[in-house]
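If you are new to this repository, start here. Below is one unmodified record pulled from the training split, so you can see the exact layout before writing a loader.
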Amino acid sequence: MRTFLREWQAELKRTLTGSPDAQPDWSRKFAQGDDPGYFLPGSAVWTVHGGVPTIVGGIRSLLMQTLHPAVLAGVHDHSNFREDTLGRLARTTAWIHALTYGSTAEARAATARVVRLHESVNGKYVDGDGGVQKYSANDPELLRWVHITFTDSFLRTHELWAGPIPGGPDAYVREWAQAGRLMGVESPPESKAALVRELAEWSAEGTLRCDERVSETVAFIRNPPLHPLLKPGYRVLFAAAVLSLDPDYRRLLGLRTARLGPLPLPVRSAARATLAVVRLALGPASPSQLAARERLRRLGVTQLPPATGGRKQKTRS
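And here is the target side for that same chain:
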């Protein structure tokens, strides 16, 4: 049993960070740098991104992003996501953590790497009216869709499966707008109401749609090539992501909440239990958080709250 648990824990860490046991190389960089970074312990971003519901949020945001035909065309035409699913996940995790926990220089460098990768992602897609349109991964409007789906998904799953956010939901949307600006999104939403309004506008204008390619991608997200030890838990978390979607997006994606005949299954409770086990396996603080705290102490940031949350810190003058 002990060997089984160690193997499961190693595969979980490998899936999320690319490293089964040691601290990922990219997280060591967060101990370096000459400034506190964009976000600090006790901030809304640290609180949300330090929680395991982000796993459900990541699945949810991928489901939503498939509905934009240009975004989906870029993934299919230029990505090896089927062959390197875990590698893509680890790289996305590294970027999120660089912005959340790194110095401003590290956050900007990580964003610049993403922008460079996007430079070659160009092509054409067929819109809902049958017209052929050009796309570019660095197009501000495509980046905007990715940003708002990410923000909405992480916020929603935290609200469902975690505690309160310092400053409330508006604080998270406002703080994480910095990530959108770094990526080139103009005037990203800075409140929950603005975020909801933008999502409604995207739905109303008719850009989003579901076709055979979307259905194939959703089927892949439902059953990715994970280690067999992780598949039972992933099924629960996928069902949780579907549950957390607004009904209009579920209908558009052709998804339904989990049921046994006419009876709904207790997905929310099952997800809470699964996430609790994941948190226990990963530990109370990620290597990224610990490295960031090392940098903050070196810079003289005092009164840091504990890794699981606490009071806002002060900076020595």
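Two things worth knowing about this chain: Strands lie at 122-126, 132-136, 259-260, 263-264, 301-302, 314-315. The chain has a mean pLDDT of 89.
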